[in-house]
Predict the 3D structure of the following.
Amino acid sequence: MKTTELENVLHTLMCDAYKIEEAMSETLQEMADAANHADVRTIIHNHVSETKSQLERLDNAFRQLDAKRKDVESPITDALIEQGNILYKGCEEGPVRDAALLIALQRIQHQEIATYGSIRALAKALNKPELESLAGSTLDEEYASDKRMSEIAEGFINVTAAYEKLAA
Ligand SMILES: [Fe+2]
């Protein structure tokens, strides 16, 4: 099937989204294990199952479009995960590490929001209502967990972390 250039851009974005979700499903369990506060651990655990259903949703989207997923390079995903590791792995277990974990996650989260927002916008422009709706569902979930992470971080984790002992 012939595709337009914009459809190719959309397809690459979808492959990239898949790559982000896949990388996250590998890294989230490690992040959950590193968390101290139950609320931080819970939100990361919730994210694990959410990520799984988002991967399934993307698989559905590829099927609906009768498009094959290709393995794309995603240097920004690798960099965000690596940057997150640098942030939280240098902290001892406790509120400071929890604060760093939430920051690391939210930076990735914002990348996902930008990606799904673009997929939804292109699906709309290209008159692909099913894809527009699938991307919209994932986007809503990403926004909701980002909001919840901000509530936890700004609600008590950052303040508790601010009273921790001085870094060595
Ligand atoms: Fe996601």
About this structure: The mean pLDDT is 94. The domain at 5-161 is CATH 1.20.1260.10 (Ferritin). Residues 21, 51, 54, 112, 142 surround fe (ii) ion (CB under 6 Å). The helical segments are 5-34, 38-64, 75-89, 95-125, 129-162.
